[in-house]
Structure formats: structure tokens, C-alpha cells
Amino acid sequence: MTYSLNNENKAWLDEVWNKLQAKMSAEVDRVGDRIPYIPVDGKYREDKSETDIYWWTNGFWPGMLWQMFHATGVEKYRTAAEGVELRLDKAFEGYDGLHHDVGFMWLHSAVANYRLTGNERARARGMHAANLLAGRYNPRGKFIRAWNDDCIGWTIVDCMMNIPLLYWASEQTKDPRFTYIAKDHADTTLTNTLRSDGSCNHIVILKPENGDFVEAPGGQGYEPGSSWSRGQSWALYGFALSYNHTQEGRYLDAAKRIAHYFIANVSGTDFVPLADFRAPAEPVVWDTTAGVCAACGLLEIANAVGELEKPLYLNAAVNILRATDRRFCNWNSDEDSIVAGGTGSYHGRNGDFEVPIIYGDYFFIEAVLRLRGQDFLIW
Ligand code: GLY
């Protein structure tokens, strides 16, 4: 897909791509096949393959590496990504540690590998992950259970980004069961999670025996009923992806409704999102990761709509990316991480508050490569 950019945006894109290549080349030399998450003093010190192999973000570093390999052909990205994929095998051994986030973990590692290289072992890993995700489906409630322990009827909006693993599994096996599950879950999310104004709940608890709505407690946003911005971006991009895989118009309609709500909110803060669009005015809490994820979703919507509608989504995506670059990107190749200002959760103070977080870098790279027509669909 190519996008029509004016000369100023083209020049910015060329410049940012040059900086990305320098930064990622230095970073892969330092990090290799360890699994980074959040840097401390400009360095990735923690290796999640040692501290938490089940952590939901463990696929984003290999996702960055596969995107870079696809765009540049430079072998060291592929070598490091293959190394991470091997490390992730340890997570398959401990069933109880895995949640619905197997999509985030294996779409960006094994499935990306299979898509680009045809590696059969990688395909098997992807299918194993897809079967784990399908195994979380509740056929009476018609939803995929998010978390373990006593969260039996819990669904979360993030899962919209995990279900592309199921679309991939159906495509691979020619067995529609995986897609049936993905669509049931997307439809349950449409009914219970998406609100009429285009905002979304984060968590929705349903009765496991019949899927009836129980409650929508607060999650990673400010409070119940508020509007956690990364949750909005998961929904925006997730529904756009469900449209891509199914061509069912209700998913594109949902993605557009969420996008209009997102654009309206982000345009009030110079195109960098607050961590929650319905938090009190003070303190100001940013979450750049919501912006860069939404930018990818907006570009996905731009691909799906007609010529006259495209600029709305394209321009919003470019505005978000340029504002993020101007205000939050670190292009010093001696330091790890790119996009600062990411917030794990509004009330969280666990070292993930307005800091660079690995998925912010992933979505920034994907968005830049989308604009250059050099990405591949990892979802
Ligand atoms: N639970 C995934 C996220 O923090 O967005």
C-alpha cells in the first residue's frame, strides 16, 4: 500500500527512517537475542527470558527485528529474532503462566518467521499458540477468557489484538473453527466493550454460563467508565484487523467509530494521547504507546476506505507520529529504546510510568514502515 504524502512529510519520513536504521543496528548489536522491556538509564539491563518468560510483551522485540529484516535484508536482525523464538519455547513448557496474550507473543516471533522464511518449526510454534488461544474460548459465553486464576468470565479489550493469531491459523489449516472463535469474540466485544460514543471499556466481566454482562470494572485506566487510551487503540487497530481478515463491514464501522473518538481526543493534546481521555485535568499523564498503536490502526483503516476518506486517517496517523517523534523520540544510538513517554497503566508506579516501553518502539517502527510501503502484516 502506498500513501500520498506531501514533500514535507516525505522528507520527515526519509529522515526518521535513516535514524531508525542507525538506532536499530546499534541496538541489535547490544541486545541480540535477549528479551528487552523497559530500559534503565538508557540501557536494557533486564532480560525477560530470565525474569519472566511468560510476559505478554516478549514478542515485540522479535517483531521489531522481523520488520527490520523484511525492510533491509540485514541478516543480524533475523539471527537475533530466531534466537528469541527459541528462548520463548520455555514458555510453552509452563502452561499456567500463559494467558490470552499468546497472540502478542507468537505472532511477532514464530508466525512472523514463518511468514517471511517458510520455517516449518516456526509454523508449528504458531499453531501451538493458536490452539492455546482457541482453548480459552467459552462456547456458551462466546468470548475468549483473558486471564487465569479466578478470572473465569473476564474479557479485556486487548484481546482484539490477539485474535489475528486465530485468523492466521484458519488460513493455514483451511479449518474455519479458529475464525469462528475469533468472530464470536469480536462480536461479544462489539456488544459489551464498545460504547456508543466510540470509547471502550478495558475489562468486561461476563457470566460464563451464558455471556450475560455482569460489570465493567476499572482496569489500566483512571476508573470504571473512563477511557484508557491504549485500550482505545487496541480496539481501534483490533477491529480494523478483524475487518482485514474477514471483510465483515461491522468491524470496519466499529474501527472507524473508535478512530473518530480517538482523533477527536488526541487532537486536543497536540496529537500525543493522555493515558486516559477521561482522567482529571491534573496530573497530566502521557501514554505515547497508545498513539503509535492507534497510528498503525489508522493506516490500516486508510487502506480499507475509499479515496475521499483516506486523508482523514492518514493525516491523523502522520500527525501522531510526527508529534511523537518531535516530543518523545530518542535517536541517540548509544542508548537503548526510541519512544519515551509510555505508561503501562494510569495508576501504575511499577517502573512503567512515562518511560520507554518496548511495544511503543514496535508500533513506531511498524507505522514508519507502513508509510514507506516496506512493512509486512505481522497481525
Ligand atoms: N495488558 C496489555 C496492556 O498493558 O496494554
TrEMBL record:
SUPFAM superfamilies: Six-hairpin glycosidases
Protein name listed in UniProt: Glycosyl hydrolase family 88
Matches recorded under Pfam families: Glyco_hydro_88
Assigned keywords, A-Z: Hydrolase
Family annotation (InterPro entries): 6-hairpin_glycosidase_sf (IPR008928), 6hp_glycosidase-like_sf (IPR012341), Glyco_hydro_88 (IPR010905), UG_Glycosaminoglycan_Hydrolase (IPR052369)
Binding site for substrate: 101, 158, 230, 234, 345
GO biological process, one term: polysaccharide catabolic process
Active site: 101, 158
Molecular function via GO: chondroitin hydrolase activity
UniProt similarity note: Belongs to the glycosyl hydrolase 88 family.
